[in-house]
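note to self — DONT lose this again. spent like an hour looking for the file last time. sequence + predicted structure for the chain T wanted, 163 res
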Amino acid sequence: MRGLLISFASILSLVCVSACEQVEPRQGALHLPEGDAIEGARHFVSLGCVGCHKVVGAELPDPVEEGPVRVLLGSKTGRTMSYNQLVTSIVNPSHRLSTRYRKDKVSLEGQSLMTSYNDVLTVTQLTDLVAFLQAHYVKAERPGYKYPVYEYKSDSESETDDS
C-alpha cells in the first residue's frame, strides 16, 4: 500500500511540475523592427494587395485584376488600428473578419478569402506593410465636442444619501 501511495505522489508531482513549465504561447507584446512606409506601399502593390484592398488617402495604381470585393483599409475615425492588430490581420486574416462586408464576399466557411502570404513575406516586408497601413489610420479630431465629465460619489457620500 505504501508503494502505491509513493507511486501516486510521484506521478502527481510530475504532472504538477510539467504543468508549471508550460509557457503560454501568446503572452506579452510583439516587438518587431520598425518598418519603412514607402517600401510598404511598394510591397502593397507588388504583392497584389491592391486587387482586393483600397487604402484611404493612399495614391496607389489601379489593380491589374480586381478581387470579389475591395476591402477598405485606413480611416479617419475615433478608433485606429494598433501595430499588433495590423500584424495579426496580415498573418492571420481569419482572426477577425470585417463586419462591413457581406460574409460571402470576404469569407468561405468562416475563413478569410485573403491569400495567405505567410510563406512568402519576409519580416522586413511585413513590418514595411504595417508601417504603410498604420500611417493611414488617423485618429479623427472632434473640435468643439466636449466629453461629459462624470462625477462619482464616494462610498461615504453614498451612505449619507441612503440614510
